[in-house]
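User: Structure with 2-phosphoglycolic acid, tokens only please.
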Amino acid sequence: MRPLIAGNWKMHGSLRDAGVLAEGVRAGGAGARAELLVCPPFPYLVPVGGALGSDVALGGQDCHAAAKGAHTGDVAAAMLRDVGASYVILGHSERRADHGETDSVVRAKAEAALAAGLTPIVCVGESEAQRVVGEAEAVVTLQLDGSLPEGFAEAGGVVAYEPVWAIGTGLTPTEVEIAAMHATIRANLEKHFAAAGAKLRILYGGSVKPGNAKGILALPHVDGALVGGASLVAGDFLAIAAGVPDAA
Ligand code: PGA
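Assistant:
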């Protein structure tokens, strides 16, 4: 399967920064082995989408579970689709922490994304305390069981494994730990979706940089990366994308 390298710009930058960054990604994006995706803040979706051209996909960082309605400050999945997004990140640990998103909320949002024709990227991952006591795989399994909706596999849904303690810290699990977790996630996807689960992309996220990307992206069942900080520098983001294995 073609790897996916997704940039999560979070709540960074100005309109001007977003335009420069998008131009930089576009310039290096044509002909990339990996599929490239950028997820800017909502106000910048339209100009960034225009600047990216057709070789780089556009995504949102969240959507509401409802199709429309009285939800001040929220954005509907169909609105993201309307402005050219094809993906939406859901259940990021920062959303779970800042907005109290539970697995069932994430699942409802993923259903809304599917209904609107967006591909959900559902994020899971354990805290440091959970890893220390040996609960990482159990936590991630519960998150997957609670947040993946019916129809996820048919739509080519994506799972991103992002250990909370690795996000923005410069720390990562060892390659052995990443491979073990991705194998667990693959088994879970096959449990839920049978053979279709074998074909879904599982991204690793958390302090992916140009220097560690190649090793991580070569691991079994690592089908791409979800990149935060390093996606804010076009050269770094493209260097990460250049680290996908040749045979992919
Ligand atoms: P990071 O963020 O690459 O800055 O660690 C990853 C993410 O939160 O998606």
